[in-house]
Structure formats: C-alpha cells, structure tokens
Inverse folding.
C-alpha cells in the first residue's frame, strides 16, 4: 500500500464476513464500512461541507467525468485541487469516469485505447485513456483514485463480458504505470458482468498486479438483486482480506446491509441525495413521502429517533410545506436528513460487527421490511 | 406603543435626518436602520436560519398573502406560529398582503370591504378584509404586523389616489379595532401615490389614530427615482419622530442610503436574495456577474473586504462553476454573501450616523457610483 492511504481491519463478525476497519488517508481516518455521499460536480447537491460533517460524513465521492468536462481538471489543479476547490478537508475518492461515460454520454465507443464519448453538456467528442484518467484524477487530487474500467450494460453475452474484463485488466495495468502521486491510493476494478468465472479471474489478476484496494464494478446496472449479491459474495472471496473492498454504486439500505455481510467495506450511491430531492425520506422503518397530504398538520419531526438538524428543528408539516411550495430549503433539509440516516445506518452496522452480532442485525433489518428494503 | 414592541431613538446625524435606534421586540432587539430580508413562503430562499444569524440578520419579513394561501394561516397557528414553523427565533414582521395582491394575483378588485383576488396558485377566489388581514397576521404571530392597504399602480390620477388613501385610512382604523394581541405592534401605511398633498394628509390622519410605527407604501412601483425620494422626504417629515418609519419594498443599496438620510428606519426588499439567485453579487464597488468567463480561474474570494462564509471559504472560480453547472449550492452561497453585504451596509450606515457624519458617508457612497447605485 502506498504511503498515503492505509487500511487496518479492526473487528470481524462471528457468523458473517463482515468486518470493521479504518482507512487512514491524508485527509483523516475513515471508519469502515463507510458510505460515501456523491458530490458529482464538486458539491454534494444542496449541502455545505459543514452539514456533511455534522451528519458524520468522513468521505465523499467526486465524479471525474463531470469535473473533467466542467470546470475542467486543469482549472481545479490550478486552484489547488478538488479538496480546496470545494472546501472539503476530509477524505475524497474520485471514480475514473468509466461508469459515468456508460450512463450519461450520448455516444460511447470503447476501443482498446480507451473510451470515446460525446459530452452530455455540449456534444463535444472526447477520448479517455487510462493515462488521461490518471492525469485527471491526479489534478483533482483525491485520496483514492480508481482505474479506468469498461463497464458493459446488463445482459451482455459471455464473449462481450470477457472482452470487457480483458480491457479493464489491461487498463488497470496502464493506470498502475501512469499513476504518479505516492499520496494517492489506486483501486482496481473487477468487471465480469454476471459471470462468476470472469469475476474471479479478474479479481485474481488484479490481486497479482497489486492495488491499494479493490472495487466490484458493473453492478446495479439492471441485474436482478439476487444476482448482484451472488456476484458480490463470489467476488469478495477472491479479494485480499487485508485490502478495502468497495462495491460501486449500490446503495439502498438493505443492499448495503447485505453486502457488508460478504466483507464489503465501502459504498457510494446517489440514492439518499436523489431521493431527498424528490421528497422521499428514509426513517426508521416508515416510508415518508413528505408531499403526502397526511403530513399537512403533522407537528412531529420527520423521525423521532433521528438526531439530524432537520429532525431537531422542523416539523413534518413545515417540510411538506416547503416541498409543496417548491422552496429550495426543502431539498437542503431533506438531504441533511437522508445523509444522516445513512450515516446512522453505518454506525449501527459497525456497532453490530463490533459486538460480533452482525448476522442477527442483518436478519432483523431484512425482516423489518418496509422502505429501507425497497429497491 | 403596545407592550410588545418599543422603539428608542439613539443617535441623530448632524446634517441629515438620519438616526439610529433600537426596536425592542419580544424576539430580541433590532438595531435601526434595519434591513429585513424577505422570507416569502416561510423561508428566506436557500438559507437556513443559522446562516441568516451568522450574516447578522435581526429581523425577517414574511408575506401574509403567500402564507395565507399556502400552507394556510390556521395550520401555522396550530403549529405554534410562524416563528416556530420556520425555526426563526429573532424578530419577524409580516406585511398585510395588500402589496402582494397588487403584484401577484391574477384578478384584483378593490371594494370598500376589502380586496377580492384570485390565487396565483390555484385560481381560487378570496376576499381579504382588514379584519381578516389582522386575523391572519395574529395567527402568524409576527412581532410587527401591518394594516391592510390599497396600493394603486404607478401613474393613477389624483381622484383614484385620493380614493385609495381614504380606503387605506378606513381600513387602518378597522385594523386597529380588530387587532387583539397586545404583544404585536401594528404599523399604519401611508398611501397617496405621487401626490405630496395626499401623502401628508394620510400621514396626519394615521398619526391621529396612533400606531406603533408608520410605513410609506406604494413606492417602487415604477415611478422615477427622484419622485420616490421626493415622496419619502416629504412624508417622513409628517410622521412622529419617536416612532419607527418604514419604506416598504425599496432596496437597492443607494436607495437605502438616501432614504436613511430622510429619517427612515426600516427597509425590506427581495433585491439581495433575488439578485443572488441570478448570480448578481454585491461587492464593495465592483459589479460581479459571477457567470462571466473572466472568473473561470479566479482564485480570489468574491469580495476581499467581506467576512461572510462564502468569501471566507470559496473562490470566484468555484462560485462560477456552481452557477454554470446549475448547482443549488451556488444560490445558497450567493445569497449568504448578498445578505451579508446588506448587513454590512447597514452597519456602515449606523456607524456613520453614530459619528454624526452621515452626510459625508452618503455623498461618498453616491459618488462612488457602480453597481450599488444601479436601479
């Protein structure tokens, strides 16, 4: 592992593969399992950094694809890197752009050299190579950077998946060569679609190259949930136990709870922030669609068990009013709450692992059903 | 003056009518001249109450018209009043709805009884009478409430203006009778369009009835600027010196500076908040249109002389990026800055008055020209 980031496994659960740990980065220690809110364009939408900290956030994800296109990584480099630019002094991880290119850009053509795509902003044509992906992420200066990967859509045949794995491995090697900053940790990404054989082969090969951490990519792209967990469980077992394992983009609460049981340490997802903006609020058990007329005169806090700023200061009736009146503060208050919900969930997860009782915690969580278990 | 709100004139300028004072309300003391940011729908757009406090805001204005229509004043009453509803524990003033009805509703018909209007939200028909205006404002529970007034558009003939003055005076009397809460201060509103004779007559009659403060209404509706100041100067002279004087809705920095010289103590305006949302930022002298390409790589704070959160933490390049990328945080950071600019302006105004040098301050401010002097 590079000098910048260290991972220490702390406690292991008794009946599952779950474990707690600490990821030590140049921007502070991060307790794992960790959930990273997504700050796509240099901001977690609607939130100040202080609000993230108050909610307990220790690490944020930034999107290379977006920042490369706007404002441009060279501008961010010139302004002192993404930490300074967005006023976030805790840990940062940037993705490589591979997934965003897959999900956002108009045209996408994968060649051996890299990914050609058209900007979703102005239609301009770009080629991201492994070297450029490293160069951009170096400019952004995150604590953890990701290899460029080829993320195929759901349902590809074995041959296509195999080709994408080969490419992803080749690019991983090139990224490893291209990375310059010793303070940045580099994670490899396991692809392989829904083919366990490809997944384990990819994991093995990445392990041989040696990375600071390993991500399982290409999930949450439309596959059935049970298939996703099968792949997570299968792949995690092939990854080195001493390194952090990261499932990219999966993030309903129940998904996190289950993935942790297979030894996953890191998560990111837009679900808490995006749901918040649509007035879909995570509470302990109950599903709150805050625009609902039943909350019109409801003077209770959103979640009586929650300690977030929103729940301490405002009624459901006020939140509903802000959403109905289309006031921006609605989004801010809702996002604060959902992020805090996720942070408390991670606290509960770590606590259960610490007690060696994660299996029971998970069983109860799944049995409870409800909103947190929706896809 | 009622038991709730007291006004104490503190210092008087030597060469102008400017004065400083303290408005003591059940929700804290307010230094005058004061600027009140507008919280139309139970929130100053994009800001948490803590941000307003950090910017130095001591009093906020709420819009009766909007809150009456949505969520409804009875809901706010039930939830403990507007202070509790919106989590604002400092002073609050609510307008009567008269001006908002004039500027927003689809149909507006003024009768002797009150104002009939169609909701801008759902087209429903409503009649606001003086009694209802008081009842709504009692439910909202602001520290200062306003009489219902008939605000004619710019350019009305003398007879129409006279009719609106008569109505406004009759309604002022009815509001005075209808107001129940001794903790709420009630302000009368002087109408009279651009006719000094009508303005002084209205001021005299309100003075005889006796109110806790006096507002000059019906300005900033399209009249030439010099006419506005003529009316302010003329009317202020007829209002009792021991009571607070409030010019409703006027609010470019230079307007405030000039109006203060005629003895005006209170202001409200959407300019700082609305401009912020459009990326128009007030700085000490320079006009900043933050989307401008010249700020693309500008690592300086928005205003090097400003102590606001935004200027302490972010570069112009970051603010520009957020605006260009249409990120909501842009609006939050810009609003924080513009509000702080206004609060610092009021501090400078009070300081100059305290030193008896307001005339010089004003002259310099006007001479400087630039953005702050734009209409």
């Amino acid at each position: 592992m590079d000098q910048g980031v260290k991972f220490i496994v702390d406690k292991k659960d008794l009946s599952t593969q779950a474990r707690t740990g600490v990821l030590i980065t140049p921007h502070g220690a991060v307790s794992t399992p960790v959930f990273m809110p997504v700050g796509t364009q240099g901001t977690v939408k609607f939130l100040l950094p202080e609000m993230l900290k108050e909610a307990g956030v220790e690490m944020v994800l930034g999107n290379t694809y977006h920042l490369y296109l706007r404002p441009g990584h060279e501008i961010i480099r010139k302004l002192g890197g993404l930490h300074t630019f967005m006023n976030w002094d805790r840990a940062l991880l940037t993705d490589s752009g591979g997934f965003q290119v897959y999900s956002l850009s108009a045209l996408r053509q994968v060649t051996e050299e890299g990914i050609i795509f058209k900007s979703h902003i102005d239609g301009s044509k770009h080629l991201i190579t492994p070297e450029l992906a490293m160069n951009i992420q170096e400019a952004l200066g995150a604590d953890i950077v990701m290899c460029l990967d080829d993320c195929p859509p759901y349902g590809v045949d074995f041959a296509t998946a195999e080709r994408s794995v080969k490419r992803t491995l080749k690019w991983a090697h090139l990224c490893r060569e291209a990375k310059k900053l010793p303070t940045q940790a580099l994670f490899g990404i396991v692809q392989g679609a829904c083919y366990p054989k490809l997944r384990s082969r990819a994991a093995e090969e990445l392990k041989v190259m040696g990375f600071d951490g390993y991500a399982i990519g290409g999930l949450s792209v439309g596959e059935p949930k049970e298939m996703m967990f099968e792949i997570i469980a299968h792949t995690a077992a092939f990854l080195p136990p001493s390194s952090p394992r990261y499932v990219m983009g999966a993030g309903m609460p129940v998904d996190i709870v289950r993935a942790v049981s297979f030894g996953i340490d890191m998560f990111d997802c837009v679900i808490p922030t995006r749901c918040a903006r649509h007035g879909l609020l995570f509470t302990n058990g109950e599903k709150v669609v805050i625009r609902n007329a039943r909350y019109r005169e409801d003077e209770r806090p959103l979640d009586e068990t929650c300690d977030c700023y929103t729940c301490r200061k405002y009624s459901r009736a006020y939140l509903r009013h802000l959403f109905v009146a289309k006031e921006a503060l609605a989004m801010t208050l809702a996002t604060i709450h959902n992020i805090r919900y996720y942070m408390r969930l991670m606290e509960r997860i770590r606590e259960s692992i610490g007690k060696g009782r994660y299996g029971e915690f998970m069983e109860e969580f799944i049995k409870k059903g409800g909103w947190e278990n929706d896809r």
Summary: Chain A has a mean pLDDT of 95. The longest helix of chain A spans residues 328-354. The interface with chain B takes residues 41-43, 45-48, 66, 70-71, 75, 78-80, 85-87, 296-297, 299, 313-315, 317-318, 320-322, 324-325, 327-329, 331-332 of chain A (CB under 8 Å). Residues 59-270 of chain A form a domain with the TIM Barrel fold (CATH 3.20.20.105).
